[in-house]
Design goal:
Length: about 375
């Protein structure tokens, strides 16, 4: 088995005696979030990173990992080896791997907004056989700490309020707004409206597929679709459904949505994380779709303060900045996450600076 660990590894490796880090990628959504975190381990010859995709993962998940040049270890092999650190952005299958697990959210907030009852920071989600599974439970906001204290107090010693690295990277990207617009083909005199959609029939894409054509009459429009839409329906089908939307910028599911949000003059969306990030960043938003969500969640706060889309009025007249605070540690996520990972690894942190980097500019 070609891997830098296990039987016979000493005969295979070029860089020996590394601490082994496993990245658990059950779907593309988790994978995109974990790629942000992996940058915090770069340039350290003491650390070897490998990825694994659990059996039954959605189509395209392994391809996502391989496209990033990561070493992909078979699931069966990953489950019998003990690692020095396991990184996860979903609680799925974390009890089947061995080593201290750091689990972080794969969207805005560690607490689920879709669940009308419960939030995922409860005993059933975090424990197995009476034991708290994650060694570190990463939270974005102090309010989530209170949810955890009520629902699973034995997990409190494992909680780390780290803020939100995704949001920090978007804030670091604000000075590059003009470059993102140029890369997307947006002229100086054009307005860009991003239409964000989570998955499910009640989402923007599920309930208002004609909205893209409507908005294209007045603006440049970018479609930001949840990766689950692409993985469940297929890339060909998604693009086929949008084939008559001439001039539409279709953002790929792997990367690009953050740059588009920074570049946008307004975001039309639903209760999903993209709309929440836009609001937290200060981009004017308006809701095209608003299904029921868990009371007091970030999605609920957005629902209570954001305007509803009126199809008889210009979008830019309706969209407004909504005060939404989704991180209690703005600008600190990179430093806190790296400190936590190296604590679990039992290694001293590198001396080099640690900060959130701007998201890439994609041309063409």
């Amino acid at each position: 088995m070609w891997a830098p660990f296990g039987q016979g590894a000493a005969r295979r490796v070029t860089v020996p005696d590394c601490h082994q880090v496993l990245v658990l990628v059950p779907h593309v959504v988790a994978g995109t979030r974990l790629m942000d975190v992996l940058t915090l381990l770069e340039a350290d010859h003491r650390v070897q990173v490998v990825c694994t995709v659990p059996t039954g993962a959605p189509p395209g998940t392994e391809e996502f990992v391989l496209a990033r040049g990561a070493l992909l270890v078979p699931w069966a092999q990953a489950t019998w080896h003990r690692f020095d650190l396991v990184l996860a952005a979903s609680r799925q299958d974390v009890d089947r791997v061995h080593g201290p697990v750091l689990v972080l959210p794969h969207g805005a907030s560690a607490a689920k907004s879709r669940r009308l009852h419960g939030h995922g920071l409860d005993r059933a989600s975090l424990t197995r056989a009476g034991r708290v599974v994650p060694a570190a439970i990463v939270l974005a906001h102090d309010d989530e700490l209170r949810l955890l204290a009520d629902a699973c107090p034995e997990a409190l010693p494992h909680a780390v309020v780290a803020g939100d690295l995704c949001l920090d990277r978007m804030r670091a990207s604000l000075p590059l707004r003009a470059e993102y617009r140029t890369a997307a083909g947006i002229g100086e005199d054009e307005t860009l409206v991003a239409v964000s959609s989570t998955w499910s029939p009640s989402s923007t894409f599920g309930s208002r597929p004609w909205l893209y054509r409507e908005l294209l009459r007045e603006h440049r429009v970018a479609a930001v679709l949840h990766p689950n839409i692409w993985q469940v329906h297929g890339a060909w089908q998604v693009r086929a459904w949008l084939a008559d939307c001439t001039g539409l910028v279709v953002v790929p599911p792997e990367e690009g949505w953050r740059a588009v949000v920074v570049a946008s003059d307004a975001v039309v969306g639903d209760h999903g994380s993209v709309t929440q990030y836009a609001a937290a960043l200060g981009v004017p938003v308006v809701l095209a779709s608003s299904p029921r969500v868990r009371p007091d969640s970030f999605a609920d706060q957005l629902d209570r303060h954001a305007p509803r889309l009126d199809h008889t009025r210009p979008v830019l007249e309706q969209a407004r900045r909504v005060p939404l605070t989704i991180s209690s540690r703005p600008g600190e996520a990179a430093a806190i996450l790296r400190r936590t990972m190296y604590r679990l690894l039992g290694l001293t942190e590198p001396a080099r600076a640690c900060r959130a980097e701007p998201v890439p500019v994609h041309h063409g």
